[in-house]
Every structure is written in C-alpha cells, then in structure tokens.
Amino acid sequence: MKGTKRLEEIKEIIRAEEDWEPVGPTPMPHVPDLREWDRRLLKTYKPFYAPFCDLCCLCTYGKCDLTGTNRGACGIDIASQQGRMVTIACCMGMAAHAGHAAHIIEYLIEKYGEDYPIDLGNQVNVECPNIRLVLGMKPKTLGDLKKAVEYAATELVHVLSSTHTGQEGDPVDYESKALHISMLDHVCMEAADVAQIVGFKFPTSKADTPIVDMGWGSVDKSKPVILVVGHNPACSTEIIDYLREQGLEDKVEVCGICCTALETTRYSDKAKIIGPLSRQLFFVRAGIADVIVADEQCIRTDLTVEASKVGSVVIASSDKACRGLEEASERPADEVVKEMVEQRKHFLILDHRKAAEVAVKAAMELAPRRKEEKPLMTKEQAQEAAKACKACRNCEQVCPNLLPLSEAIQKAAEGRFEELRACFERCIGCGKCEEVCPQDVPIQKMFQSVASWETWKCRAGRGPVMDTEIRKVGAPIVLGTIPGVVAFVGCSNFPEEIDEVAEMAEEFARRKYIVVLTGCSAMVAGMRKDKDGLTIYEKFPPDFDAGGVVNIGSCVANAHISGAVMKIANIFANLPLRANYEVIADYVLNRVGACGVAWGAMSQKAASIGTGFNRLGVPVVLGPHSSKYRRQYLSRKEEDDWTVMDGRKKELVDTKEPTPEHLCIVVESKERAMVTIAKLCMRKNDTPQGRQIKLTHYIDLHKRLIGGLPPDLHHFVRTERDIPMFFKREVMEFLKQKGWQRKPVLSLPTLIGTYPSKVSVDAVVGGK
Amino acid sequence: MALPYHKVNVLTGFKAAAEMKDPKALAKVIKKAQRPLLVVGPKALSIKIGEKLFVEYLVEIAKAGNIPVCATAHTKGKLEELGLVPDSTYDIMEIINHLKDPEWKGVKGEGNHDLVLFGGFRTDLGNQGLSTLKHFAPHLRTMTLCRFYYPNATFSLPNIRKDEDWKALLEGLVEELKTS
Ligand code: SF4
Ligand code: SF4
Ligand code: SF4
C-alpha cells in the first residue's frame, strides 16, 4: 500500500500532468501492486522445481538438509528455498543490467549533461515502452533514464531483502518477487541500451545495419590486435574514437567477444566479432590479442592468469571487475604503456579515454613481438601432445557439457581428429578438462588444430523495432497469420553443436515467422553457411516482418524485444501503455504469438531476462542446461482449468484450450525445441485462418522431427475451421479417435476479471 | 557414498540412490511394481553398446517386463521403427510434472505409476528431473538404466566403465524380466 506522500512523489517523477496517455493503475509499482497478476499467472503456470542442491548454507544455523519434507532450522522448505534461490539469481541478473545502465548513463551525463535528449530517429516514436509501461514515465532525457534506474534499484533492495533468513517463506510469493525484479530488469536494459544508442549514436530507426565479419579467422593477425570482452561499450567506443583521431582505424584490429563485440560493431563496422562467450578462453589462449580490454559481465575470472600465459596484457576498465589490479587511471599513459610492454603487467584503468590510449599504444608495441612468440598448434603437434593421454577419463568427468573427451584425445593421438573437432563444436570453453588432466594434455590448445578458421557474417544490432514495422505486422501477428515472433536470446551454453541456433532460426524464418536475436545467440546464428557460403543474415531480410531475421543487438537489447510486443498492444491495439502493466501483459499472453528461446542460457542475467518475459506473458523455451536454474513454469493441459473471460460478453468461458501451454519449459533436443516453439506461438485470440497456419507448422514439424501427428493436437483444434487444409483428412480421423468436441473461439480472451484486480474488463477493449 | 561419473551431478545432500548392479535384484524391484513406466530419452538413440543401440535394449526391457513407455524428445519415431508404439509422448519435464502428482491417472489412465525407469537422458538433465521426483514425489520410486550413477534416483546402476559389463547387465535384466 502506497501512502499519499509516495503517490505525490511518483506523480512528480513521472510528470503525471503530461497528457500523452492517462496514468494507469500501477505507476512505479512495488511488489504487492502486481502480486495478484503473478498469482493468477502462476495458478495456470505453476512453479515446477528441480532442486540443484538439497542443502541450504546461507546462514550459520546451517547447513540444513531440505530433502523432501525436511525444513531448515529457520523453517523454510525445499520449494520455498528454490523460489528463494531463483529470486536471488534474478536479483543478480537484474543488478548486472542496472549496474551497466547506471554506469553508462553516468558516463554519458558526464559528457553531455542530464538534459541530453532521447531521440531514436523518425521511425521510433514510442521510445522506451518498458519505462512507459512500468513507471508511467515518458523519458525525454538521459536524466529521465537515470530516474528509471534509480527506481528499479530501490525495488531491488526490497526484493533482495526478502531473501534474508526469516523473511519470505512461500514459493509463489518468492516467484512473484522474482517476476517483479525481472520485469525491472527489462526497464534497466532498456535504459542502458537507449542511453547507448543516443550517447554513442548507434544505428536506430533503420533495419539494414551493416553486415560485419565474424570469427577468429576474420582478424588480421598482421596488425596490432585489441580484444574487448564483456558487455559495456563505454571503453571500446573510446578506443574506436582514439583510433579515428589518430588515423589508425585501418592499422589496428579491434575485435570483441560476447556483447561488447556486438556493441562495438554498432559503432564501427570495421570492428570484428570473434564469437560468443564460449570462445573466450580459446581465443585468449590462442594469444592473438596483444591487449585485452575487459569491461563487465561474462569475463573469465581468470582472464589475467590466462593472458599472462600467452603474453597478452589486460586492462580492466570497470569497477565491477577490478581483478586485484593496480589502478593507473591517474598515471601518465606512456608510463603505463612502458610497464605493460616491458613487464607484461595488467592494470585497472577506470578513465576510459586513458584506457583507450594505453590499449592502442601498448598493442602497437606488443604486436611485432607477438608474431615471433605465439605460433598456433598444428595437427602434428596436437597428435604428439595427445600421446601423453593415459585414458583416465578425468577430463570428461568434469566437463560441464559431458563431452566424450578421452576418446577424442586418444583418436587424435592416432592422427584422427574428427572426434576432437566435434568436441570443440560443443565445447563451452570452461577449461576444466585441462585443469584436471594428470598428464597435462593441453586440450584447449589442441582445439586450435581443429578449429575452423573460416569467417562468418553477422548483422550489426539494430536496436528498437520501428513503429512503422509494428503497424504493418500488428494485425497479422494478433490474428495469427504471421505465425509468431521467435526470439533467440542468451548465452552460449549450448548442449550440442554451436550451429543449432542457426538451424532453428533458419527453420522459423523459412516458415515466415519473425525471427529476432540478441547476444551470443545473435552471433552463433551467423556461424552456419549454406552451400553457397551464405549465412542466415545474408539470406533473409533484416526486417521485423514475416520471414525476417533481425539482430536486435546485445543482451541489453532484449528490452527492445519485450518492447516490441508491448508496442503491438499499444500501436496496433491502441491500448495505453502508461503504468498499465496488467492490461498489456494480459494482451500479450492471450493475443501476441511470441516465444523466447534461450538455448544456451548460462547466466543469472539470462534467468532474469527470461523471467521478465514470463511476467509479460511471453513463454520461453530453454535448453537442457537450464534445468539447473531449478525452476520452470509448467501447466498440465488435460488437468488444468483454461477458463478465461470473454472480454466482449464479460462472461467466464471454459476454453478447454491450453494456449500458451507453458510459460517456461526446459526441453532436451533441438527437435523437441522446434516443435515446442511452434506450439507455444498459439494464442486464444488466433482467427481460424491464423490457427490453421500455426497448426500447419506444428503438425509439419512434429511429423518431420518427432513422427506422426502431435498426440495433443485435439487440444489445439477449436473448430473444424482451425484444421489445416493440407492435413484435413488425417486430422479429422485423429480427432474422431480422440472423441474431440468443438471448443469456443473468443475474439477477446482475457484473464482480467478472473482474479482480484483494480483493472476492469473494459480496460482490455482497445481500439481494435 | 558413490560419486556420479559426471561431477556436475555430485550430490549436495544426504538422500542418495542405492547402487544396483545385479540384474536379478533390479528385476525383482521392477516385478514388484504395480504400475511401472519406462521413460526413454534421446541419448538412447545415439549411444551404442557393442553392435546395438541403447534404445534397442530399452525396447527389449519394456517388452520383456510388459512396461508401458513414455517417449520423450524425438524418440518416438525410432521406437516405432523398433516395433514399439509408445503409450505416451511428453518431453522429460512434462512427464515428470505429471508423475509428481499422486492423483495423476498415468499413461494408461489406470493410476499413477509407482516405479519409473529412465534411460537415455543427458545425465545432468536426468539428475535434475530425478531431483524433482526425489523431493516432491514420495509416492513413487525411480530407477536409472544408463551406465552412470545418478545420485537423485532411488535405484541406480553404478558407473560402468566397460561396454561389455553394461551390455551383460542389460541382457541379464531382459532375461530376468522374461522369467515370470
Ligand atoms: S537460511 Fe534457513 S535453511 Fe538456510 S542455512 Fe539458515 S536456517 Fe538453514
Ligand atoms: S573446456 Fe570444453 S571440453 Fe573442456 S571441460 Fe570445458 S566444455 Fe568440456
Ligand atoms: S584427463 Fe588427460 S590423461 Fe586423462 S583421459 Fe583426459 S586427456 Fe587423457
């Protein structure tokens, strides 16, 4: 319950008097404000827990064994403990983006001032839909973005405090808090990326951003090489600026790993993307980088140790990852360069301008020496090294991706490298195999001999989806004739080959879904070529339209995907965004056929990004590693109640239709993932024509990848008009066997009115 | 306490699977079950044991023990090719979500299962699924047939290094199940 003083304060922050839209029911919400929405959502999509650890060791009463019906000394049970751990993970993820946003905004305010305007070009008028929706503010300046992050940070304190011993004690309430903080993660990501776009003049309001080179093979090793690693482009853009000023842009290679790579290519199309996170250790150990500039998030914690082994030097540029290094922010650049070059010493430099100068100068001095010092391992050398292997299998027992390394090494000793190459394709780059090898077999280095040095292509990230695009696709998405928006997001902890994301993305693009990508997934989508040597980015148009393949950008650009679905409700359906979260989330859940796919999700950020999508009503499909996140949101189609409100008649209707079936589900194989994605794009609002199209893909994929008609098909056919013409006869036959009966088709399905809420059913009737 | 083969599955707790390597003892547990279920995972389609695929042994076990089958991931087609029409298809987490409800009617509609056998999953995913059942499904027991020790099962094979040993165990189990 908010007091009147707080409400006054909120009004002031969001400038309630501005009349761009009426202020909705939940401006700058606290946890309780959307708790009922969460509880309604989780009534259908119940938290499903797979504990990763049976114990709790968070306070000195413990360790406590929470197995089964045991409770901890504080009274907590295993389900609540899972909710608690999920909440902590989401807080960590959200904090990483909030920290990123806060830093970028502060840095840009320092440069340009608080009043620096937000202008995303003439095609993006509904800028910052997340901030509009959640806070109720229409941000106009960098200062406004700062306010959004400050509000989110205060909420973080509340939610994180609930995980202290003796606070929250119910799994659903923990989930509600995780959902809340993850919704705010999208607010922070949006603030971060919008600040970056305006501050660094990243492309916006255009689809055809440049196609850039990707792969370690794309780096011109004859030049000085600077590798940027992490997520925050403040330092890497300074490096590009410095090179430009000095006329060195063509003389020094700037390449990146992880999201900083994506950001840097938004700034300079001469920058190269090495690849996703999983290639960090591989590339560092290759010793190609003369200088490594680390910023924040997803940087290997042993980066300086690894860099030292190959003679590379590291500049840590973020206070979030100082790595025990001596700070040289105030020292003269040339002095620092000298020490770096002569002693191969690493430094913490928090002044980005100085870090850029030092990085460039040090790289130019180190490059000539590197060429003599660091040859890559050849097949012959790898074969020789493999001969030390005693087949103890220690390596494969510690491999987080369960790879059959021992056999691969032994085959390599015989001069057969196919198995080793296959391991490299699946390797997530942790280095644990080498660490445990009693024979010191240099497994990571041996990967150099089998890694493909070919180059791939990636489209530079483009930021927000344009309003004009939303206008064009809004109707077909909501009616179902564009069968869905599929978002491939997240890290590179892939279960199988690195190109599985590319395969899945291409399948859905060919089927005329809208495919959007971010982060490491956006990179690996470009790491597969067809027989003509073309990658997905060269084959499909870059438009947010049926059959388009759109690289939205880095991890923080995920907010533009949630933003795009919000804008469908706003621009197409004329529903106000302003502080109107329940109505918009309800619209998305029931009417926007979008589905997220985090096939290699690894980080806590991926947990909060996905959970933020879930609160907004977007289901997410996860790869098998994600079972270790401990929690999914699953329904049971036969047993659960699928009653919704018919918004037009204001009557409760048992639709008997499980759409979308799950909100967050882990699946094991890419085949199952593709079928599940097609299924999770169905919505109650689909017209018969739309449902026919969606069912065509569901049936077709199921037949091809799993075999036969989907066994749950009858749940998704509402009337005969939903049945795809092409499969009519066999589907009719199947329905007869199942004793299928017609189900109601609603044109305005909504959960509003089915749970306690301030929002009335009338609020869901938009302009269309 | 036995250690799992893949270290990622190390038990951080106390309730661990009983290691079982005697086909007779395994068969006894299966035969005692009123409503067993075999859940088949996709690794069974690629793992070879000598000349045969793991999935072929799983089919033999299902047939010998008259055990209903749930096909997960993309295993349905191969099972059918091997002459076994699965009683249900779900993905692993969906079937586990059903199994943890004591009121569920089971794949045959005759009531929930009291013993669930698993074979052919990634060990990390499998161990996570088994964790759900260990904590939240006291009404059933679980058994794994892969060559790795799964701490979160009720009964698990030990880590088996040699193909021949695993093969002998599975063949022994099939034989034991055939004898009524
Ligand atoms: S927080 Fe509770 S369950 Fe955890 S160690 Fe302390 S008393 Fe035990
Ligand atoms: S570096 Fe790669 S192969 Fe080695 S343990 Fe890690 S994931 Fe496995
Ligand atoms: S740990 Fe080393 S010696 Fe043992 S199998 Fe692996 S590579 Fe061979």
Explain what you see.
Chain A is an alpha/beta fold. Chain A folds into 4 domains: 4-200, Up-down Bundle (Substrate Binding Domain Of Dnak, Chain:A, Domain 2); 211-373, 3-Layer(aba) Sandwich (Rossmann fold), CATH 3.40.50; 379-441, no CATH class; 456-764, Rossmann fold, CATH 3.40.50.2030. In chain A, 44% of the residues lie in helices and 10% in strands. Chain A has 28 helices and 21 strands. In chain A, the strands form 6 sheets. A 6-stranded parallel β-sheet of chain A has the order 7-6-5-8-9-10, with helices on both faces. In chain A, strands 14-13-12-15-16-20 form a 6-stranded parallel β-sheet, sandwiched between helices. A 3-stranded antiparallel β-sheet of chain A has the order 19-18-21. The relative contact order of chain A is 0.11. The model of chain A has no long low-confidence stretch (mean pLDDT 95). Chain B has one domain (19-178): Rossmann fold, CATH 3.40.50. In chain B, the strands form 2 sheets. A 7-stranded parallel β-sheet of chain B has the order 1-9-8-7-2-5-6, with helices on both faces. In chain B, strands 3-4 form a two-stranded antiparallel ribbon. In chain B, a hairpin with a 2-residue loop joins strand 3 (48-49) and strand 4 (52-53). In chain B, helix 1 packs across helix 6 (163-178), helix 2 packs parallel to helix 6 and helix 4 (92-99) runs parallel beside helix 5 (123-136). Classes of the chains: A alpha/beta (768), B alpha/beta (180). Bound molecules: iron/sulfur cluster (3 copies). The site of one iron/sulfur cluster has 15 residues of chain A, from helix 17.
